[in-house]
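Hallway conversation turned thread

IA: we were arguing at lunch whether anyone had actually written out Integrase end to end. Turns out nobody had. So, for the record, here is the sequence (397 residues) and right after it the structure tokens. Reply here if something looks off.
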Amino acid sequence: MSRALNKFSAQTVKAADAGKYSDGGGLWIFKNDVGGGKWVLRVHVHGRRREMGLGAYPRVSLKEARLEADKWRRVSQQGTDPIKQRQTAQRNAERNMHLLRDIAIDAFESRKAELKGDGIAGRWFSPLELHVLPKLGKVPVSEIDQRDIRDTLAPIWHEKASTAQKAMDRLRICIRHAAALGLDVDIQAVDKAKALLGKQRHKVQNIPALHWKDVPAFYQSLSEGTVTELALRLLILTAVRSSPLRFLHLDQIEGDVWTIPAEAMKGRKDATSDFKVPLSSEALAVIEQARPFARDGLLFAGVRRGVISDATMSKYMDRRGIAARPHGFRSSFRDWTAEATNTPREVAETCLGHVSGGSVELAYRRTDFLEQRRSLMDRWGRKLTTPDKEKVIAISR
């Protein structure tokens, strides 16, 4: 290696004919016939000569080539092969160029088994799809910091508090997923963003519900026998959620028991834990009335295809001038068990499909209280169908 450095000037390089020229210190330029060329650094590492390309001329200027040559000379002087070190750095850079959208999709795919119905409904992914990925989806995950997250979620942080929190939770999972893949990410970026955003002002509002004393009058007013009214009646009688009821398939009913598949039950991760719903005599009567409307085995079929939508029952109640929502009947039922019966808490919670108790308690509790629930649901059915002679509640149609 020549000890003399910086032999060229920019004009000298430009005017040079085709050939190989040394700038000193191992930096060479190989000129071609059309005035272009390439920069090459020659160094000796572990007793062998290495030639390292530093870029094309004139895209890489003489000044830039000298800076690069100086950097890689120092690497070689430390006994490290500069070519191998640069290749390693390039691989790391490529690894860290994974975009957030790609990471989010991969994280979603790896968690499908934990989600109800493999997450087909999109509820896990939609907070990201709607509120995060439009702004950060094309950003390399390794470049995302707390300020990016804060600026992305700030517009909905107070106005749509629950949605913003879900988006933040999903984003936290994505960043941890990226870390598990070996990417260089700030694992605490989401928590830092939450600190920057501050406490949410939004107040959680409970779903409006009819008082349990008003439910029998409403139930008895559902007398026209339409699919929507029959669905509402069975919803009230069983205290289940809307989704498993709307997708009720006739082969799920055996005798006076309706078995809801585990994947259709919210919050139940154990794929073998189906939920048995005891059907009162009134519930069985409603099912028989609904059978003529069934299509493809689905009891509450939609007008054209599929099943009735989640909004169908809510719109019906709107037309009736009732502020309460269908989901609120679960609350009405639970209040009735607490105020008008001596039902043990475990039995009442199991009626709603809730899993109550600590992990140790649940490990030893093997009963689903089916017989106790059967008696309670029969009593609820009688309550709903017995006219209240002392109080008449006007509910507009």
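OS: looked through it. The longest strand covers residues 48-57.
IA: good, adding that to the notes. The chain has a mean pLDDT of 86.
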